[in-house]
Every structure is written in structure tokens, then in C-alpha cells.
Amino acid sequence: MNSNQRVVRYAALAAVCVLLVGTVSTVFGKDHELAYRRQFQALDASDVKGHMTLAKWCREKEAWELLKKQCEYVLTLDPNHATAKIYLKLAETKLGVSTAAPAGSSQGSSGGSAKRSSQPIRELTDEEVQILRRSELLLDRPERVPVKFRNDVLERFWDYMVIRENLTKKDKAAFNRLRPAVVKAQRILARIADYKRSSTEDFPFDDQYSSDIEIERDPAMFRAFVSPRVSGVIITSCATNRCHGGTDAGEFMLFNERNMTDGMNYANYLMLHEYEKDGERLINRDTPKRSLLLIFGQPDTTGPGTDHPTKVDVVFPNPRHVKYRNLLQWLTGLPAPTPDYGFSLAEPAETGGKSTN
Questions:
Q1: Are 121 and 206 contained in the same domain?
Q2: Residues of the chain with pLDDT > 70: what percent?
Q3: Those residues with Cβ within 8 angstroms of residue 199's Cβ, 6 or more apart along the chain or in another chain
Q4: pLDDT: is 153 or 111 the higher one?
Q5: Residues 317 and 346 in one domain
Q6: How far apart are CA 181 and CA 142, in angstroms?
Q7: Are 291 and 301 members of one domain?
Q8: Which has more confidence, 162 or 305?
Q9: Over the chain, what HEC string results?
Q10: What domain count does the chain have?
Q11: Same domain, 227 and 318
């Protein structure tokens, strides 16, 4: 690219910047508008990484119109930016914008594909599995899982607590005596949850600690989920080839492989966790018996939010059936309210690789 071409390109990018910033007031309130303007104007017009970071900020604020425009801008800088393309699709979905399938897409094709239509959007990464494990680790009851602490997180968190809670050396000695390691993890995660709940604009809490707590095996909630009593029932009734594990699965798809990885099992859980129909959830933590997981499997389940889109076999002939009772027991054991894990299956994986057993 010669100097004249470079000048023309940057002039065009600058024009796009002006147009993009000018649309902000219709998307955000005044506080967010000011924050966005400051971030956008501080970036170099050709800074792909910086503008993608700003796109992620728009995603966190759920500003879908602005996310769409920001991703379109990133794609003028890098037309092949994979994350920008996926975020753009997410924004368009949230806005109800219909877009054509890209050239070469296997959508609607009977040809072979490296990714079967019977699979969910993607497997979860190791770090995403860790987020779910930390979020669902019991904090008020014993857990039997090995834990690894990274990057001196015990010392760093203790230093923070000393300042915040005016703790003493005696308190630290008592903390260090806690055994096994998972008890320390439970204590830290419980404190972090408290700090988040009490966080304010004047006294914010920046969680720089949780990601350095590695839960090396499934906590109790997920051990129960992957068991034949829960996942076994779901997979054999919902993830068959002629249902949500087959080519006609539609948007709701589940993994059903001979050798399931952690990334697949946790993706199945997250799919169930995220699904809603007419205001009803597949997993209802507040009222477990209203979970569509239970309702869809019963006979004569017609009514608002309870009618399955297609005819399905009866899984639970009645609430006394052992499969119903096992699944209800698992649902009842889930703590309320419904958690927000901070990511979804519809979004691209940003860290780590695919998880393995």
C-alpha cells in the first residue's frame, strides 16, 4: 500500500469513526455515552485489538445496536476477524436482524461437514468449565474435590482481606490451618460473593482472584449432573438422533457422544440452563417442579409454556416414577437464584482450549 492509498484509507476510517460516535446517544444513557465516547476517541483509528476490546465492552453493557456498529467497524479494519463476526451475529440476533448464511455455509445442506448439526454450538473451554465449577461449588457444605491455587492467590487475597477487614496474624494462622484445600477455596469464594454483593460505585470490588482457583474435578452438583440418574435420562430421552441429538434438532442441540469430554458435558448443562420457552425455563431453580425438563416428559402437558413443539415420547408416566424423582432431586438441590455465569454458548470462546476428561 503506497502513502496516498494509506492516507485515503485512514481518512475513510476517520469518517466512519465520526459517524459511529455520532450514533451513540441513541443507544446509551448519558453516563454510558460519555464512557463510550472517551474510549472510542482514545483509540487509534486502525487499532484492531483496541476496537475489539471496545466491542466486548459494548457486549458487557448489552448495547446490541452499538455492538453491531462496532463490529462492523472492526471488520472494515480486518474483514476476517473471527470474533468480530461472531459478536456481529450475536448483536443481529438480539436485534432481530435476519442475515443470510455466509457463502460455503453447510446450513440447509445435506453435504458432509466437520461439525455435525446434532452438536451444540461448541464445547466449553477449560476456563469456561472452571467458571461453572467455581460458580456451583457448594460454599456451605463439604465438597470433596482437589483444588489448585495459582499465582500466589492465597497471599494476594489475604493481603486484600487484611486491608478490608482489619485482620490479624492470628486470623491468618487460623486460615492457613484450614484443610483440605477446597475449604480455603470455599472460604475465599464466599468472601468474594459477599464483596460483589456489597460492591458500589464508590467502593467497587474488582475480582482478581477467582480465576486463580482451579477446581480439578466436578463438584457435587456436576457429579450428579453427569450421572446416569440425570444426564443419562436427558440424553436417552432428549438427545436421540430423532430429537435434539439429530439433524432436525434446530437451535436446541445436545452432545451425545460415546466418549463425552468435560467440555461436552458442561456444554449440555449450559444449553439446558439457558433455554427458555414462553417465560418458562428448562431448569427452574426457584420452583423445581415447574422445570420444563420435568414437564415435557409427562403425558398431557398442554398449556402456556408447557407444550413441546413436537410430539415426544412419555419419559415420566407420573411424578412417582423413579426417573422423575431422580431428576427432581437434582433440580431441588440446585441453589437459587439462577446464576449468571458471564458467558453463553452463543458467544465465542475467548480463553483456553477444548476441555478434556
A1: no
A2: 73
A3: 205
A4: 153
A5: yes
A6: 12
A7: yes
A8: 162
A9: CCHHHHHHHHHHHHHHHHHHHHCHHHCCCHHHHHHHHHHHHHCCCCCHHHHHHHHHHHHHCCCHHHHHHHHHHHHHHCCCCHHHHHHHHHHHHHHCCCCCCCCCCCCCCCCCCCCCCCCCCCCCEHHHHHHHHHHHCCCCCCCCCCEEECCCHHHHHHHHHHHHHCCCHHHHHHHHCCCCHHHHHHHHHHHHHHHHHCCCCCCCCCCCCHHHEEECCCCHHHHHHCCHHHHHHHHHHHCCCCCCCCCCCCCCCCCCCCCCCHHHHHHHHHHHHHCEECCEECCCCCCHHHCHHHHCCCCCCCCCCCCCCCCCCCCCCCCCCHHHHHHHHHHHCCCCCCCCCCCCCCCCCCCCCECCC
A10: 3
A11: yes
- Over residues 202-220, mean pLDDT: 95
Cα three-residue angle 144-223-185, rounded to 5 degrees: 35
For the cut 80, the answer to whether the pLDDT of residue 15 exceeds it is: no
Cα 147 to Cα 130: distance, rounded to the nearest angstrom:
11
Cell 475465599 -> residue = 188
Helices 48-60, 30-42: axis angle to 10 degrees equals: 170
- Determine the average pLDDT of the residues in 194-201: 93
Residues 254 and 165 in one domain: no
pLDDT in tens, 132-168: 999 999 999 999 999 999 999 999 999 999 999 999 9
Q: Rounded CA gap, 220 and 145, in Å?
A: 9
Write down the mean pLDDT value for the chain. 79
Quote the domain boundaries for residue 66: 3-95
